[in-house]
Amino acid sequence: MSGETTAVIRGRVSGTVQLRHTERGTPAARFTVIQVPREYDRARGQWHDGDPVPVICTVTGPLARHVAECLTEAVHVIATGNLALRAGLLHLDSAQIGVDLAHHVAYIDDTLPAVLSGRAPVPAPVPPSTAVPGPSHHAGPRPAATPAPRAADWWQQPPRTSWDAATAPGR
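^ thats the sequence. predicted structure below, dont judge the formating
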């Protein structure tokens, strides 16, 4: 389409992400991003926050499912898309959206820490303890302790395809 205004906005998600499905079953998500512009006050010689600008963002398809799963209230995001003014409100039909890494750490399936992804090393089984007699003046040498069996080397195991593969294998 011609005449569209492409924009990039940065701000915080306000409220909850609403996930719906169209009549054809296509997922669609809608959420509000509050963008607070920074303005320079020449009289004071310093920067300050301007008036907050709410922007209603809409995404469709697989991106809508990802947005609904990942974004919550107050998460900083960067969104690009076509900007339009409808009924006095700014709307952004988003083509791309992501977490603003200036404010958050984000993990993808391949970079999720092992502890969170279920790839953490399995603790070695503890062998049943055998009572070792205390020292006595007649005691001989102590029996040698047997080392605990080592856990499988989890670095050598193939990575899981998804952090939630156990709950959503068809993803």
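The beta strands are 5-21, 27-35, 38-41, 46-49, 53-60, 76-86, 89-99.
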